[in-house]
Write a structure and sequence with these properties.
elongated; about 240 residues
Amino acid sequence: MSRRAAYVIVMLSILLAGCNNRSILAGFWDDAGLTVTEDNYYEVQDRFARFAELLTEAPAPEAAEALESLFDKLQGNEVDYIIYSEWMEYAFHNYYSPCRNIALFGTAVRRIESDGILSPEEVGHLRKLEALDRLNRAGDRCTLPEGAEAEGPALYLVLDLDCRTCREALAGLAGTHPEAEHIALCFGYSPIPDIPGWKYLRPEGLQDIFELEAAPFWFLTDADGTVLSTYSTEFKAPEFATPTL
C-alpha cells in the first residue's frame, strides 16, 4: 500500500468516526424516553450520563447543537426540565465529574436563563457557578482577596490545610517558577505546614471569591497582576496540576 493510500484510509476513518459520533448525538433521544418517573429515574439518569460523555467527546459546535436540541425536547414538561438542569450542573460543572466542561455548562446556563422555566434564584445560582468556572482565566486581571496581591510576578495557590492533596501541592510547586513569589491562600483548621518557599496567608472572604471545594488550584501572574496561566487540580501523580482552558 502506498503512503498516499494509507493516508487517505486514515483520514476517511477519522471522518467516518466523526460522522458516526454526530449521528449518535443527533438521534440520541429519538427512541429513548425523556420523561423521568419514580420507577425509571436511575435508568434515565444513566442515559443522560452517556449523553454527557458523548457531548464532551464531540467537536464543540456539534456538542452545543445537541445540547440545544435536548432543551428543545424538554419544553412543555417543567418537572423534567428541572431534573435535567440539575443533572447538567452535576455533569458539566462539578469538579469531580469526568464530564466537567466549562463551555457546555455555559451553554446550558444561557439556555436555562433564556427559557425562563427555573426561578430567578435557581438561575442566579447557576450563573454564579459559571462565573466561578471562568474566574482568573489566562489574560484576566487576577481576582484575589484584599491584601493578598504581590508586588511582582506571583504564583497563588488556594489550599485547604486539612487536605493531604493540598499539602502535596505545596511541596510539589515550591520549586517551580523561581521568578514568582509563592503565596499560599489558606483555609481550614490545621496549622500552617513547615514547607519553605511560601508566604502563608489566611485571608478573610476567600469563600466569597473562589469555589473552595475545588482546592487546591493555582494561578500564575505577571508583574502587573495579569493571569498567565490557571490550573485546576485533577491530581494525577506524579503531576501536581492539570492545565485548563
